[in-house]
């Protein structure tokens, strides 16, 4: 059996703020109490997807299990298990530090992420740091990992609609049942203890199990909110902290989703303009307006008649509904990168020329069997209990109808993604708001794109102002969610310098250019699949 390591409960707030202290000193420290062993094949596979000739984190990553209290107020009560990983440094001698990393979500597993960050880091960072990942409570390899309804996400799903009465009736019932099913699936009371504050205490349990006085931390997307909360609870335990793709403290979580609707609409419009620029490749229209019109016409057709495609080799049937089209093309609004733009562009072009195999490969969803909903459970478990969502459906209608008029791309799909919070079977708490926390680390480094749709820049700027002494590097023309290790040397050099030396830009805000729009491959259409992107995103 795998050895479980039990740690004492973490209670209360940190007692003092952190100044500009460097990372944890390289003096002798207690040995880690974690029992490292080989990782499961799926964790190794997730890391190997980013292996290179120079960096093969999949061959270095190790796993361990850590037992923590379900309820930190009852340290001797029920325990749950976190999956923790380490990808050790390559340099001789002790590591400069151990960096705990979180890819975002909430609901995303993060055990693989330490190995992935190792692979994406410079040789100097690989030599210096141990990268520590973990699956948050309730998610992936942590125990228990809850599933609520294995058929919830099977295609074709009902059309998201535009706030019309028919769609509302169907989706309100569907999401209410999902919330009820999650309540039934929770056998130990996890739903009442799955807030960000619980995960922050888990991070400190990991710190102590590692034997560290302080940890360094890198959080992307939702990981920036987890980082904020950790810094508020345990300011003395933070060495260096980098936050990438930042969530504003005031919008958690209802207002944050409303803002996403606006920014995703803007970014998908930008993508339509790029498709028009490359009409000689994709043949979807020569103007942004023409491509936009064609897309929304296609979505309306799919709302009435989803495309069903049967693979001649496997016999597997996939469906492209209006919902799956929206969900998958949303990737293009997340990141302005070839791997996020080419697959949906090629999928649309495939439909235009009658290639339903290519269209289904890009946008199709599973129609039979069981569809893993653990990540969706994890998303709702955190967001629905971090804060009380509006309980008056009329408010949801008013707010989203107003946005829908100008920004129709994502609005009602996002409503239904979050609608389980209307009926979530656990009591909501009060979110940590760092604007009202007096003692915080003053050496935090932030990164953001000016047109990040998932974590819009106004929220990042609000957080920067709240984190006194922080610095933020901004891609002034960027449209990529989370900009570290996305191919911009101007960004990555600042990340390296910060963790290796503690030095940051002198100005509070520093602006750099992004790498710009991708250029389609010379041979035109390439792979259409968007299924292997491995998104580390807020949703």
UniProtKB/TrEMBL annotation:
Which positions make up the signal peptide?
Answer: 1-23
The record ties this protein, via InterPro entries, to:
AB_hydrolase_fold, Pept_S33_TAP-like_C, Serine_prot/Carboxylest_S33
Quick check: keyword Signal in the entry? yes
* Molecular-function GO terms, alphabetical: hydrolase activity
Q: Is Signal found in the keyword set?
A: yes
Going by the entry's taxonomy, the superkingdom of the source organism is recorded as Bacteria
Key words of the record: Hydrolase, Signal
Q: Which residues form the Peptidase S33 tripeptidyl aminopeptidase-like C-terminal domain?
A: 412-508
Q: Which SUPFAM superfamilies match?
A: alpha/beta-Hydrolases
Task: Give one Pfam family, short name only.
Answer: Abhydrolase_4
Q: Known Gene3D superfamilies for this protein?
A: alpha/beta hydrolase
| PANTHER family, per database record | 2-SUCCINYL-6-HYDROXY-2,4-CYCLOHEXADIENE-1-CARBOXYLATE SYNTHASE, TRIPEPTIDYL AMINOPEPTIDASE
* Record family assignment: Belongs to the peptidase S33 family.
What's this protein's name?
A: Alpha/beta hydrolase
Q: Which organism is it from?
A: Actinomadura harenae
Source lineage: Bacteria, Bacillati, Actinomycetota, Actinomycetes, Streptosporangiales
């Amino acid at each position: 059996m795998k050895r479980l390591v039990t740690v004492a409960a973490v209670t209360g707030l940190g007692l003092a703020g952190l100044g500009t202290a460097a990372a944890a000193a390289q003096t002798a420290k207690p040995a880690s109490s974690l029992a490292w062993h080989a990782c499961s094949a799926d964790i190794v596979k997730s890391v190997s997807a980013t292996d290179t000739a120079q960096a093969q984190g999949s061959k270095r990553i190790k796993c361990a299990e850590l037992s923590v209290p379900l309820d930190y107020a009852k340290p001797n009560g029920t325990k749950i298990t976190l999956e923790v990983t380490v990808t050790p440094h390559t340099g001789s001698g002790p590591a400069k530090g151990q960096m705990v990393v979180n890819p975002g979500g909430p609901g995303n597993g993060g055990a693989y992420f330490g190995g992935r960050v190792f692979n994406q880091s410079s040789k100097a960072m690989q030599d210096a740091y141990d990268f520590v990942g973990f699956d948050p409570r309730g998610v992936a390899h942590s125990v228990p990992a809850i599933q609520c309804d294995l058929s919830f996400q099977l295609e074709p799903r009902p059309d998201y609609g535009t706030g019309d009465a028919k769609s509302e009736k169907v989706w309100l019932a569907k999401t209410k049942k999902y919330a009820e099913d999650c309540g039934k699936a929770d056998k130990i009371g996890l739903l009442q203890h799955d807030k960000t504050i619980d995960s922050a205490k888990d991070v400190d349990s990991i710190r102590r199990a590692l034997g560290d006085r302080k940890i360094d931390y890198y959080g992307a997307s939702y990981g920036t909110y987890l980082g904020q909360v950790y810094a508020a609870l345990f300011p003395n335990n933070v060495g260096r902290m980098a936050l990438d793709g930042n969530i504003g403290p005031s919008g958690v979580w209802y207002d944050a989703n409303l803002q996403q609707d606006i920014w995703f609409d803007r970014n998908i419009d930008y993508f339509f303009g790029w498709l028009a620029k490359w009409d000689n490749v994709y043949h979807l229209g020569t103007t942004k307006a023409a491509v936009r019109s064609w897309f929304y016409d296609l979505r309306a057709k799919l709302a009435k008649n989803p495309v069903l495609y049967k693979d001649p080799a496997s016999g597997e049937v996939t469906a492209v509904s209006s919902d799956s089209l929206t969900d998958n093309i949303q990737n293009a609004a997340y990141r302005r990168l070839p791997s996020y733009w080419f697959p949906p562009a090629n999928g649309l072009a495939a439909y235009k020329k009658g290639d339903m195999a290519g269209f289904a490969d890009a946008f199709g969803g599973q129609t039979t069997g069981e569809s893993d909903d653990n990540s969706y459970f994890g998303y709702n478990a955190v967001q629905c209990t971090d804060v009380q969502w509006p309980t008056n459906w009329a408010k949801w209608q008013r707010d989203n109808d107003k946005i829908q008029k100008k920004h129709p791309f994502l609005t009602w799909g996002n409503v239904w993604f979050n609608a389980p919070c209307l009926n979530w079977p656990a009591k909501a708490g009060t979110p940590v708001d760092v604007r009202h926390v007096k003692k915080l680390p003053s050496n935090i480094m932030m990164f953001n794109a000016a047109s990040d749709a998932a974590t819009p820049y106004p929220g990042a700027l609000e957080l920067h102002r709240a984190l006194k002494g922080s610095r933020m590097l901004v891609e002034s023309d960027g449209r990529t969610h989370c900009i570290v290790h996305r191919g911009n040397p101007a960004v990555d050099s600042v990340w390296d310098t910060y963790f290796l030396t503690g030095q940051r830009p002198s100005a509070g805000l520093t602006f750099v250019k992004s790498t710009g729009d991708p250029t389609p491959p010379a041979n035109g259409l390439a792979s259409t699949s968007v299924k292997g992107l491995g998104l580390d995103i807020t949703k």
